[in-house]
């Protein structure tokens, strides 16, 4: 998903969003990675290679909030990109339950889709459909390039890519410090798993179960995060993310 959608979702998720930020955008504190298969795997990460070899990609993120065991609201965000020959970006966000509304922590639509691509003449074409209302957007080719890049990262600092589906730099910087949380599932899959305990602004203890896997290019395969109060485990927030780098998505070029 693009940066604006990421920030919007994080804002709407409240407690879970803050925990995801702290886990995913952890400050770099590089330590030496012990010798072995995990180190060899991590040393193979290279952003330029990952971008070049990941021509098409899609992600599906579902964030849900439960209260007393009852589902109160869901945000589902789907993103597809293709930069194999030209540039193409599609996103769809579906909002339900308590996430919909006019409050600061709510969305003001149920369904939003955006399409943007470069046509055969090199022009940027973009449309947005919000709850059935279609609007043509004014994009430049660089805007679409930004959206494509944002699938991989949203922030670049001193060669460190972060904020997108490319986790190679993040893992390289943190694998040594959190080495015991990493494991190789197979020759092409690395997993990170951790359970943490923290306190919110009201001093209530929050338990978070966090897990993700990446491929040999350092690209996210899946992620799951569940956060709950220790004294009320039936009230929790949960986010699940799945990525596919061999997507057969049928491109949409306009809304009817």
Question: Can you lay out the helices and strands and say which pair or pack?
Answer:
Blueprint: H1 3-13, H2 15-24, H3 37-43, H4 47-53, E1 56-67, E2 70-82, E3 88-97, E4 111-118, E5 124-130, E6 133-136, H5 141-152, E7 153-157, E8 160-163, H6 168-174, E9 182-186, E10 189-199, E11 205-215, E12 220-229, E13 232-244
Helix pairs in contact: 1-2
Keywords:
single chain; 256 residues; alpha+beta; eleven-stranded antiparallel beta sheet; two-stranded antiparallel ribbon; 6 helices; 21% helix; 44% strand; flat; disordered N terminus
Overview of this protein structure:
This protein is α+β, with helices and mostly antiparallel strands and 256 residues long. It contains six helices and 13 strands. The chain has helices at 3-13, 15-24, 37-43, 47-53, 141-152, 168-174, and strands spanning 56-67, 70-82, 88-97, 111-118, 124-130, 133-136, 153-157, 160-163, 182-186, 189-199, 205-215, 220-229, 232-244. Strands 6-5-4-3-2-1-13-12-11-10-9 form an eleven-stranded antiparallel beta sheet. It has a two-stranded antiparallel ribbon with strand order 7-8. The longest helix has 12 residues, at 141-152. The radius of gyration is 19 Å and the shape is flat. Mean pLDDT is 88; it is low at 1-28.
Q: What is the rounded Rg?
A: 19 Å
Shape: flat
Q: Give the SSE order as H and E letters.
A: HHHHEEEEEEHEEHEEEEE
For the residues shown, what is the average pLDDT?
88
* Termini gap: 23 Å
Q: What does the main sheet amount to?
A: 11 strands, antiparallel
Structural class category: alpha+beta
Specify the helix fraction band: 10-25%
Oligomeric grouping of the chains? single chain
Q: How many DSSP E strands?
A: 13
Low-confidence runs (pLDDT<50, min 5 residues)? 1-28
The proportion of strand residues reads 35-45%
List the total number of helices. Answer: 6
Provide the spatial order of strands within the biggest beta sheet.
6-5-4-3-2-1-13-12-11-10-9
